[in-house]
Amino acid sequence: MHLLTSATSNTSVNVHMQKQTRNPIVKGFMLILSKVLIVKASISMLFGDNSLQTVGDMTEGLLATPAYKLLAEHLKQDSMCRTIIQERYIPPTHDLDKLLSLPSDSLGYIYAAQMKKSGYNPNLHEGMTVDSDAHYVEIRLSQTHDIWHIVTGFDTTIASEFGLQAFYLAQFPYPLATMLIANALIFTTLKTPEMLPQLLEAIAQGFKLGKTAKPLFAQKWEEEWSKPLSQWQADLNIQPIPSQ
């Protein structure tokens, strides 16, 4: 199984989203296309391919289903999450060098150091437009995925990646996470059964941690980069996963 890239790339950061149309013929075609993308991506994942392209195909397909709309509606039940969705909050471009001038225990410094080390581009979302609440939710989740890794303590190993997906599911019904976890369980059972205990433990840890934590989606992390990571974790009631 290829490791799902810590995801400035968790999902559809480079997926071109078509605006919805009221034309029933086009809508019908797009629905069929979305199902094809989901099936294609699922088959690829069952053969161990969790590449950015495959995850992007899965996301694009899922965004055309009712599940993503229901996700957005679920999040909007929380007043803080509803506000950030209505605002379509997107932060300014991340200046990693500037963030590295912050105290070494701050979220901003730790995030920038990790981005520099991994070589990921933190500004892949720059210039993207949003055409629905569901689309905004996915962009924001993808944009902040690496921050969630840092705050929860899940590293970027395969098991920990799916632990974070389980954390998502404990906080809201995230369609992409359900598909990623389901395919990971099937693949691991068939191809690497010796890894099942580790995978299941990570999923259990993530779900438990997500249930007790405050809503992470509601946070405007970028407006408090200088806050110590430990303070973020305390404020959000997170006992981070110990380093492996």
Overview of the molecule:
The structure is a single chain. With 244 residues, this protein is mainly α. It has a domain at 66-235. It is 59% helix and 0% strand. The protein has helices at 24-46, 52-63, 66-75, 79-87, 96-99, 107-118, 133-152, 158-171, 175-191, 196-212, 229-235. Helix 3 (66-75) packs across helix 7. The longest helix has 23 residues, at 24-46. The two termini are 20 Å apart.
Highlighted features:
59% helix, 11 helices, single chain, globular, 244 residues, 0% strand, mainly alpha
Unreliable stretches, pLDDT < 50, 5 or more residues?
A: 5-22
* Oligomeric state of this protein: single chain
* Overall shape: globular
* Mean pLDDT over all positions: 86
Contiguous helical run count: 11
Class by SSE composition: mainly alpha
Radius of gyration: 18 Å
Strand content: under 5%
Helix percentage? 55-70%
Topology pattern, helix = H, strand = E: HHHHHHHHHHH
Largest sheet report? none
Number of strands: 0
Q: How widely separated are the two ends?
A: 20 Å
